[in-house]
Here is the input.
Amino acid sequence: MSDNGNAGAMTSSTATNDRLAGKVAVITGGSRGQGAAEAELFVAAGATVVITDVLDDEGKATAERLGDAVSYLHHDVSSSQEWADVVASVVETHGRIDVLVNNAGIFQIAALEATSDDDWDRMISINQTGVFYGLREVSPLMRAQGSGSIINISSIAGLSGTAKAFAYSATKWAVRGMTKGAARDLAASGVRVNSVHPGIIDTPMFEEFGEAGGAVEASIPNGRLAEASEVGTLVLYLASDESSYCTGQEFVIDGGWTA
Ligand code: NAD
Here is the structure.
């Protein structure tokens, strides 16, 4: 395990390249973890990146660390008004949005019978409604542009039943379903929508497992957590024109968990 959840391992993909040259990308939940790793890879690939989050200090620090092509906006994804404000701000500053990564999310260990009304509402509002608002807010813009790539971060919990994470799993199945519906609605306009399903990733979210973390890690078929950047390279592929014929699909990256 690395000692932080920020950018993950440096890979050959962090070398400068032009895979996203000229593109403007918005990454929600980009202050740390996978979102920050994706921002780093996107900038190296020539993109202009806006990271958004509710962790303002971490978000500003991440943007500063990654340089002039990255900026930070405060943004609670569970607020439709804040979505409207963020999209308007990015369009005013950068003129367009080519890539949206709906990455922001929360995780909670709670089995079905231990899930309170508040737990459920909070999980749905961030993980599910937040993605819906994002899809709805950028769709007219991307449709008018005639292009765009939206990547929704689901989970392996959106592919099978997940013990002791009932609400989380429900939202990640919803993300997968919304991805397919949006992909069908937008396909003819040149806008692509795909979902990514990470296994267990070495980010601050992993700490939610608490003492169970060791057993979770030991049960990963390839024997280790993924670095955030390993998910980032897949998201980079989906953001780029290299994936031009991919839409409405789920991309699994899990060290063999669902094999
Ligand atoms: P993380 O906790 O490091 O990052 C999540 C980010 O989302 C944080 O910066 C957090 O502040 C932000 N966020 C939370 N609520 C928000 C809100 N209301 N508005 C805006 N931002 C908000 O964890 P991560 O692993 O980087 O998670 C990224 C995504 O990957 C999440 O959707 C998560 O469900 C998914 N995922 C994570 C794992 C894993 O093992 N870490 C596995 C599968 C899927």
Residues 5, 28-29, 31-35, 53-55, 75-78, 103-107, 126, 153, 155, 198, 200-201, 203-206 surround nicotinamide-adenine-dinucleotide (CB under 6 Å). The longest helix spans residues 117-145.
